[in-house]
Amino acid sequence: MSLSLRALETLRSVADSGSYAAAARLMGVTQPGISQQVRKLEESYGVVLFVREAGRLRPTPLCDRLCDAAERVMSEFSTAEQMLSRHGALAKGQLSVGLGNAMPGMSVIAAFNKAYPKVALQVTTGSHDKIMRQVINHTVDVGILPEVPKDGRFRCKTLLSNHVVAIVSLSHPLAQANEVDCEDLLRHRLIFRTPGSSTQKVLDRFFRRNSVAPEPFLSLDTRDGVYEAVVNGMGVGFVWRTGTGRNDDVKRLKLLGADTSSAEVVFAPAERKMETLDALFGLVDRIELL
């Protein structure tokens, strides 16, 4: 017979009450069921758990130690059960969010925190591919990304339509313009994101539609790296228009010649049922994003 929480609970009930009958009443089961369970434990492990003394069942020293361990185990079990039941609840629950772009995702998180301050928030940032994997693998509860595939695996809600723009330093020759086409871009050093970035996915599509495949001067794995390279005059970078609130030290240029737009989407596995997720998806319809 394998040891179970139910068996440990039975031992504690018999030890506390002093009889099989009293333990059966406490647990709402039959007396034979209680005595049979104790006997099976004793036979399976070759031990003595109770001795009869003055008409009562007295636990042996081994049983006393088991009961102490059982109390600790059941306390931890109760804690684990509370963690599971509260995880997706609005009262003292938790919600983990994966962001590809700081904005507009952080605006959504701030609005959620204001509406539901008792929910503990955990935020992960990373590339498009990283966040997609985390949502699919249930490492995070919900993701906020552009370029989310349309399929039945996901429950989705569109936040806004975003698009990729070029950025240049304020001293760059293109800084006097408001837009730039593919032909003009190819005259300058280009700074790309590494594969797996949603920005790069859209940018690659832009160049394919213009029938070119330029080689970058530099490839960087973070948005901040692209910004720093651009600010330091190393070339033309590319970012989502609303990907960050940083605006003062670069000039944004609209890309001409092919569509670079994509919906920024809140998404989660379709089968995941959580009160916090329902609240987040409901909030999306009520918040205003630029």
Keywords:
two-stranded antiparallel sheet, single chain, 290 residues, 10 helices, 24% strand, alpha/beta
H/E topology pattern: HHHEEHEHEHEEEHEHEHEEEH
Helix content: 40-55%
Identify the overall geometry: rod-shaped
Computed Rg: 30 Å
What structural category characterises the helix and strand content? alpha/beta
Strand percentage lies at 15-25%
Strands, total number: 12
Distance between the termini: 63 Å
Helical run tally: 10
Q: What's the pLDDT, averaged over the residues?
A: 87
Provide structural commentary:
The protein is of the alpha/beta class and 290 residues long. 41% of the residues lie in helices and 24% in strands. The strands form three sheets. Strands 3, 4, 5, 6, 7, 10, 11 and 12 form an eight-stranded mixed sheet that branches. Strands 1-2 form a two-stranded antiparallel sheet. Strands 8-9 form a two-stranded parallel sheet. The termini are far apart.
Compose a concise summary of this entry:
The chain has 290 residues and is of the alpha/beta class. It has helices at 5-17, 20-27, 31-45, 61-87, 105-115, 128-136, 182-185, 198-209, 223-231, 275-284; strands spanning 50-53, 56-59, 94-99, 120-125, 142-146, 154-169, 179-181, 191-193, 218-220, 237-240, 250-256, 261-269.
